[in-house]
Amino acid sequence: MHPLIRTIIMSFFILSWLSPGVHAEDQYALKRGTMIERDIKGRGIKDKKVLEVMAKVPRHLFVDPALRGKAYEDYPLPIGEGQTISQPYIVAFMTEALRLKPTDRVLEIGTGSGYQAAVLAEIVKEVYSIEIRKPLAEDARTRFRNLGYKYIHVKHDDGYYGWEKHAPFDAIIVTAAANHIPTPLIKQLREGGRLIIPLGSTLYYQTLTLVTKKKGDLDVAQLLPVAFVPMVGEAGKKK
Ligand code: SAH
């Protein structure tokens, strides 16, 4: 090898080692890789696109800086306001279950940190996300702007009523627990569309339930026991 080329390569390695920013990003990429193998692929997620996207989205930038080191672990983390960012496996599971296409338009209820919306936005054309807690909606909006997610639209509102203006949606994902499926969301789902929601007691455990709209009828499948924070607002009042 030419000595000049060797010097260039050596300086590159020394510089990247000395630069803490680059080094830290490498560490996160390594942790992300481990997460994919151990908790996502390792637990049965097969969809290539879901695996690819979860290996790419910087989950550590969706949590408080103090929690970044834990961002790729197999559990939910606090995001303020008593809310949580879901466990990575659950994000992958729900995303896979929706069988998304690149041309889809998706509605999310419960923006939270914005991580699930970012994962969706890497797969589909447009994501509409509603968050009832104003500070979380504002933080997520800032985060999307900083990370360049132009196709995620955030609304601060009660997601119970959906987002009529942009309906119908190809898929709807509810990331807070409810004891029934909000009727407006069923109405805003297009024919053939899929909706996933943690359904059951909002205090303890729920069942991830997948609903497919078929010729006006609903095809319902119960998929996985989960524990989500409750959906508040109108959903909390109705039985
Ligand atoms: N998807 C999020 C995690 C959501 S935690 C993420 O990737 O980080 C559940 C979120 O739903 C919380 O932020 C909570 O404030 C929100 N939420 C609860 N009830 C809601 C409602 N009625 N409409 C919209 N958002 C709601």
Model description:
- It is a single chain.
- With 239 residues, this protein is an alpha/beta fold.
- It has one domain: 3-Layer(aba) Sandwich (Rossmann fold).
- It has helices at 3-18, 20-41, 48-54, 88-97, 115-121, 134-147, 183-187, 234-237, and strands at residues 77-80, 83-85, 105-109, 126-131, 152-156, 169-174, 189-200, 206-214, 217-226.
- A seven-stranded mixed sheet has the order 5-4-3-6-7-8-9.
- The longest helix has 22 residues, at 20-41.
- 38% of the residues are buried.
- It binds S-adenosyl-L-homocysteine.
Task: Please name the defining characteristics of this protein.
Rossmann fold, 7-stranded mixed beta sheet, elongated, 239 residues, 9 strands, 8 helices
Number of DSSP-assigned strands: 9
**CATH class descriptor:** Alpha Beta
Give, in order, the helices and strands.
Answer: HHHEEHEHEHEEHEEEH
CATH architectural label: 3-Layer(aba) Sandwich
Distance between the termini: 74 Å
Computed Rg: 20 Å
Q: Number of helical runs? A: 8
**Overall structural domain count:** 1
